[in-house]
Here is the input.
Amino acid sequence: MRVKALVLFVVTLAFAASAWAAGTETVIYDFPNYTGDGYSPYAGLVADKAGNLYGTTYQGGSSGLGSVFELKLSGGVWTETLLYSFAGGTTDGEYPVYSPLVFDAAGNLYGTTEYGGSSCNCGTVFELTKSGSTWKETILHAFLGSGQKDGYLPQAGLSLDTAGNLYGTTEYGGVNNQGSVFQLAPSKSAWKYKVIHAFSSQNGGAYYPVGGITQGANGYFYGTTYYGGFAYNAGTIYRLFQARNIWVGQNVFYFLEGGDGVYPDSSLTMDAKGNMYGTTYYGGSAETCSGGCGTVFKLTAGANNTYTQSVIYSFQAGDKDGLNPYYGAGVTLDAKGNLYGTTIYGGKGTQNAGTVYELKVSGSSYKESLLWSFDTVSSDGYYPRGGVILVKGNVFGTTSAGGSHGGGTVFEIKP
Here is the structure.
């Protein structure tokens, strides 16, 4: 493992930009953009119970194929530890993309890589287990591709159910080569893998999932597909459940046209009432973008497992707002029902370098404010591709580029 300490500092831009930012941003780690450390974090973060942060980088590490890192705060200093460097080839994964890590109850970490793992180079599911001060990686599954009726190229992260089963999606593969949902079930000797759903575009079906799986009540699981639907091929929201030990897929909602949002690209976030929230890359009511600037939407739970979709915010872009919430970013809920997320582009000013936004509950609607607009010309990061998390009321996330060395950053925002 490689350990590096970085003294906590506030980016100069936090002061210069305070007139148009609702929060104060601090870069807590600046990736150096050279082999040995990771760089270019594409995914968001996960925190342990102590508030330590964990994430992945798309590139870097000892082989240049991506890494897993930890950030620990002690005495005002964040210390970065490189937990694992992917080796690639036929025995290991490479290039973890938009997959945030997930913890199980025992403190093990799980994630996906887009490539590597077999001669197919189709991606992997991996586990990191801690033994003393070191972490050991195990490949739980190497994807084999559509030729073997398996998925390939997983984009999103994993989710765990109450029994400890892992669920995820692949953008491609399955029997129709249009994406799949898989399950990994733990056993005493090994994890048991199976494809539980293969997507198909036939008869207006859903296909190409880039978001992950969200568990709901009563054995239902939910997700989004970037394409699909009868009229506009603008994407779907689907659910899966078991009936007599057979997995059944149903479409819950078809995105119809621009005003509804088009091309949902995130996992879904569920509140205590069973309502779900997500983002679309395009669409919405803004006239400042051709095809719309993207949306945040809500699925309101009704009787008999029915849902009603509404757009709760349409991004405006220009020099006033964010543009295009990126693959997998989605939204995070706080205890009051407020939503937080990122856009990869847009922001106030002329940099078009991305934003962090808040949607605050206001009666029956939401009020949006930009917590931060990123800048390409200072030591700030830019182009946030992953989502954000909340730790002790502050917002944490990553940028895929920028910082003092150009390798991306981990940031903290105090709203």
Observations:
- The mean pLDDT is 91.
- The CA atoms of residues 40 and 400 lie 5 Å apart.
- The helical segments are 13-16.
- The radius of gyration is 20 Å.
